[in-house]
Structures are given as C-alpha cells and as structure tokens.
Amino acid sequence: MRDLLEEIGMTIRRNKLRTALTGLSVAWGIFILIVLLGAGNGLIHAFQSASGTMATNVVEVRSSSTTLPFNGYPAGRHIDLYERDARASQERFPDQVVQAQVQHWQGSVTVSTMKDYVSQSLIGVYPQYLDLGRFTMYRGRFLNKTDLQERRKVIVMHQGVAEQLFERPEEAIGKTVRINQLAFQVIGLYQDAGNTSDRPLYIPFTTQALLFGKGEAIDMFALSVQNLPTAEDNESFESNIRRMMASRKDYAPNDPGGIWIWNRLKQNQNTNEAMHLLTIALWFIGICTLLSGIVGVSNIMLITVKERTREFGICKALGARPAVILRMILLESVTITLLFGYIGLVAGIAATEYMSVLADGTKMEIYGQTIQMFKDPTVDVRIAVQATLALVVAGLLAGFFPARKAVSVRPVEALKAE
Q1: H or E segment at 30?
Q2: What is the pLDDT of residue 193?
Q3: Alpha carbon distance 89, 235 (integer Å)
Q4: Which of 299, 309, 289 is nearest to 387 (CA)?
Q5: Separation in Å, CA 227 to CA 46, 51, 231, 264, 366
Q6: Residue 183 CB contacts under 8 Å (≥ 6 apart), including other chains
C-alpha cells in the first residue's frame, strides 16, 4: 500500500499543472455550492427572524377613505369601522373566521413615575390580541375578560419602557404609573423580537373608549382565519370582505378604497413560495457548478489514462496484474478529489462565516421597524460532504471504464501506443 501511495504521489508531482487544474475545478464546485446555499439560507433566516412569533393566519382590516363616488356620496369619504363590523365578519364567514378582535389606537401619550417619564403610543385591545403573536409576555400577565368588563385602569408595557421608569423592570409589576395624569396599575411586561422601535402601551379596549373619548369607532379589527390554503382562496375571501363592508357602509363594491386590508396569511404564502423558488434556483446553479467539476475530473482522468497506456503496458510486461494498475488509477482520482474537495469545503465554510460577520451590518429601519436583511448564512456540513462524495464517485466512474479498457490491452499493443 505504501508503494502504491508513493507511486500516486510521484504521478501527481510529475503532472503538477494537470493536477492543479483538476483540483481547482473540484474545489471551486464545492466552494460555490456552499456559498450559494449559505446566501440563500441567510435570506430565509432573515425573513423568519423578521416574522418572529407573529401569527400568520391573520387578516387585518383598517378604516380608509373611498376613491369612487357612490349613491350621491363624493369620493374621499372616510369610512368608520365599529366593533359590530368585526362581529359581522365572523358571523358572515364562520368557516373562515375563527375569531375577531378590535383595537383603538391613541397617539403619543406621556407615561410617568416619580423616577422618569416617556412618550409612547397607547392601544386599547381585547385579551385575544395576545393570540396575534406580536410579542411574548416577560413578567406578569396580559389583559383578561374581567379587565375588559370592569373597564379597569390596568396597563401592560414593554420591558424597555419599564427599565426607563423603574430601577429594575421586575419592580414595575403592581406599581402605579400615570398616563396623562390618570393612574394605571402595571399588570404585565412584554418583550418582542427586538426588531421594532415602537413600544406601545396596552390597556383594555373598553377603558380606552371610556377615558380617552374614542367612542364606538375603532381603528382596526383583526380576523384569525382558517381554510384558506391557496392564493385564490385568499383573494376570494378578501373580495367577500370588501363586498360585505361596501354593503354595510354604502360605498361602491368595486372601490379599492373604503377599507384597507393586510392579509398576513397571503403575504406569508407568497414569501414562502418565493423562498422556495430561490432555494431551487440556488441549488440549480450550485449543481451546475458542481457538474463542471465533475466534467473536469472526468476529462482529466480520460487524458491521464490515454497518456499512461504505454506505462501500463510496461507494468504488465514486468508482471503487474491489471487489478493493481486499475486500483492505482482509481486511487489517484480519489486522492485528488478528496484533497481539493476538502480545500473547497473549508474555503466555503470560511466564506459563510465571514458572511455571518457581515450580516450584522444589513439592518434597515423601515416604518419604525429594524429589519435584518441577512442572517445566519449557515450550511449543513452533510450537504458539502455529500457533494464531495458525488465528485469522488464521478471521478471513479470517469477513470474506471477507460482504465479497464487500457489495462485489458496486451502489453505489445500498449507499448506501441504514443
């Protein structure tokens, strides 16, 4: 075995340029495959991080203004939404709407303690708001039905806001804060994924309507939906909601205004489909690059066997068995492929690690949210190992058939080969 390895090493050193070109095609194929898959994973992970724990099966309906005149009403009429509109949506489409919840939004309010004060937006919600997955509770509890029914002056605030108003955020639970000089008891702290600069305060919907003069009109209602597996189903559901609201509010059914709809479920489906197509495209490009390496190995092996036909004849004339010669050729192919495949593997992993370092600089501020465009471009090492093994197998197959033909030639004929 030692003699065989020395013979392979001698052959490689004797053909340095050929070996380098073969190895370069192998290493490049592995390197490009890892980098492309890493880049794709970086985009996918960034999207998943931006989505966070937010529920995707939600359709939000917000008030807006009409864009078409209808029944004597001019264009530009503001459409008010009410809690009964949310209930009507659930009653009208029971197979698609699981639950409906509403919210009031208040502009910047001042919340203060003896220590400090901050200005934040104030949102009046139902207890079901927590099901939308915009955040998770850090300490204490969220609003409940009793808070809503009794119009309690209780508040849930962001952990970061509590850090500004109290010595330690844990001390906030049970303490009193003032909102525009009205006393509220802190019952819970929440935390989000850290990707937003907006940290609103949450109080019961009924409390805000009573104390802040919001009345019956609401800013938005959210529908938790089901049984909408396709884009067509979502489009149909949105159209049905628009027609129902147009009928209730007396504006043109074909008016794109009146209400504004954000369908998170459809958006998530579209994004997942785009990510899937991106992954397929990256795999296609990576495999094509890998195939170029396979072709390179195959061509070099064909040339190697042809150039060494005379050498094989001499070996056979001296008593070498065909199996020994065949094994030497195949081991040479495996050695080159494994060596340079490992180099490409290490270089590819190093490149993805470097991309991971650069990923922190891809954050963008969009509508008050900090979105990271690229995150954690990791690749499963098993994929790279499998790609290297594919190249090894290709090299074996490429060298096996011409080598078998060459070693089967009689020594006299092999010696005549040029």
Answers
A1: helix 16-51
A2: 54
A3: 16
A4: 289
A5: 28, 21, 12, 14, 32
A6: 153, 176, 177
Alpha helices in 52-204 (DSSP H): 83-92, 145-149, 159-165
Average pLDDT over residues 186-199: 75
Among candidate residues 322, 224, 296, 232, the one with its CA nearest the CA of residue 269: 232
Could you give the CA distance from residue 280 to residue 287 in angstroms, rounded to a whole number?
10
**Mutual angle of helices 322-358 and 264-307, in 10-degree steps:** 150
Nearest CA-CA partner of 344 in 36, 18, 29, 17: 29
- CB neighbours of residue 375 within 10 Å: 21
Rounded CA separation 28/311 (Å): 31
The pLDDT assigned to 76 comes to 92
Contacts of 266 (CB under 8 A, 6+ apart): 228, 231, 234, 235, 238
CB atoms within 10 A of CB 265: 22
Which residues fall within 8 angstroms of residue 49, CB to CB, at 6 or more apart?
193, 195, 372, 375
Question: What DSSP letter does each residue of 9-27 carry, written as one string?
Answer: HHHHHHTHHHHHHHHHHHH
Query: Percent of the chain having pLDDT more than 70?
Result: 83
3-state helix, strand, coil in the chain (%, to 5): 55, 20, 25
3-state class of 148 per DSSP? Answer: helix
What integer best gives the mean pLDDT of the chain? 81
The residue-averaged pLDDT of 361-389 equals 66
Which has more pLDDT, 332 or 418?
A: 332
Query: What's the mean pLDDT in 388-406?
Result: 73
Q: Which run of H or of E encompasses 354?
A: helix 322-358
* Nearest of 205, 200, 223 to residue 215 by alpha carbon: 205
What is the arithmetic mean of pLDDT over 372-387? 74
The DSSP H or E segment spanning 314 is helix 309-317
CA dist 239 and 365 (Å) reads 32
Terminal-to-terminal C-alpha distance of the chain: 29
Which structure tokens are listed for 200?
Answer: 């609103």
Q: Are 187 and 27 in contact (CB under 8 A)?
A: no
- Dist CA 259 CA 267 (whole Å): 18
pLDDT at 341: 81
Q: How many other CB atoms sit within 10 Å of the CB of residue 144?
A: 13
